[in-house]
């Protein structure tokens, strides 16, 4: 993503434009606070626009990463061909329709053909896609496709369970504030036994 910079002056320009964008976002937030009828100059709100900008920058930091960034050097050739399952990867994202949080857990599995991924990279991959403006369905597919493209496994399965504050906080469909999405590729789509094995592994244990 980040290309080698031609010169120091280019780097300064880039930093300046970053700072300028940050300032502008904070300014817009200050205006929003004013427009909802608040006083952006009162004690508790004075630094809120800058805090908001910083938080937003973190929550959308996935735009400054890509799959290669995260997975380069993290794929290993192996003869292992059993299912790899990473359960309960916690994530926090922002729904692109309301810019309100949705959050929950991702379960990711794949059946290697001759390559595996570093296990910690799966959580990083989930977080990269989560830290963008998202819809749950697309995020689910993006995770599955990234793994498929990177290590060409026999199949990939991704299940995401999430609660959506845009539904819960606004009192819309209070009973349906949570959603489950899945993406099944290759063997996970075509082979019922593989899919069932995955589903059984990620199902909450009945106590
Ligand atoms: Zn929403």
Give the radius of gyration.
21 Å
What oligomeric arrangement do these chains adopt? single chain
**Average pLDDT metric:** 92
Kindly state the percentage of residues in helix: 40-55%
Bound molecules: zinc ion
Structure summary, number of beta strands: 7
CATH class of the largest domain: Alpha Beta
Enumerate how many helices there are, as a single number.
8
Order of neighbouring strands in the sheet with most strands = 5-2-3-6-7
Structure, explained:
The protein has two domains: 8-59, GTP Cyclohydrolase I, Chain A, domain 1, CATH 1.10.286; 67-202, GTP Cyclohydrolase I, domain 2. Helices cover 44% and strands 24% of the residues. It has helices at residues 8-35, 48-59, 67-71, 119-130, 136-151, 165-168, 187-190, 192-202; strands at 75-77, 84-95, 101-111, 115-117, 133-134, 155-164, 178-186. The strands form two sheets. A five-stranded mixed β-sheet has the order 5-2-3-6-7, with helices on both faces. The chain has a two-stranded antiparallel sheet with strand order 1-4. The longest helix has 28 residues, at 8-35.
What would you say about this model in short?
Helices cover 44% and strands 24% of the residues. The protein has helices at 8-35, 48-59, 67-71, 119-130, 136-151, 165-168, 187-190, 192-202; strands at 75-77, 84-95, 101-111, 115-117, 133-134, 155-164, 178-186.
Features:
two-stranded antiparallel ribbon, 2 domains, GTP Cyclohydrolase I, Chain A, domain 1, 44% helix, 5-stranded mixed beta sheet, 24% strand, single chain, alpha+beta, binds zinc ion, 207 residues
């Amino acid at each position: 993503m980040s290309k080698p910079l031609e010169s120091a002056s280019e780097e300064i320009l880039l930093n300046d434009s970053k700072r300028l964008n940050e300032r502008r976002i904070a300014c817009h937030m200050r205006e929003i606070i004013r427009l909802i009828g608040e006083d952006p100059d009162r004690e508790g709100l004075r630094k809120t626009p800058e805090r908001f900008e910083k938080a937003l920058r973190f929550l959308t930091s996935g735009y400054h990463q890509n799959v290669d960034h995260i997975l380069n050097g993290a794929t290993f050739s192996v003869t292992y061909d059993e299912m790899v399952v990473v359960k309960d990867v916690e994530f926090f994202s922002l729904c692109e329709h309301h810019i309100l949080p949705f959050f929950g857990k991702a379960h990711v599995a794949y059946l290697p053909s001759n390559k595996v991924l570093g296990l910690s990279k799966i959580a990083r991959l989930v977080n990269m896609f989560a830290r963008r403006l998202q819809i749950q369905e697309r995020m689910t597919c993006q995770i599955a496709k990234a793994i498929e493209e990177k290590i060409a496994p026999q199949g990939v399965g991704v299940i995401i369970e999430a609660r959506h504050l845009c539904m819960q906080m606004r009192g819309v469909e209070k009973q349906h504030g949570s959603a489950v999405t899945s993406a099944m590729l290759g063997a996970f789509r075509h082979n019922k036994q593989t899919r069932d094995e995955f589903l059984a592994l990620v199902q909450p244990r009945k106590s």
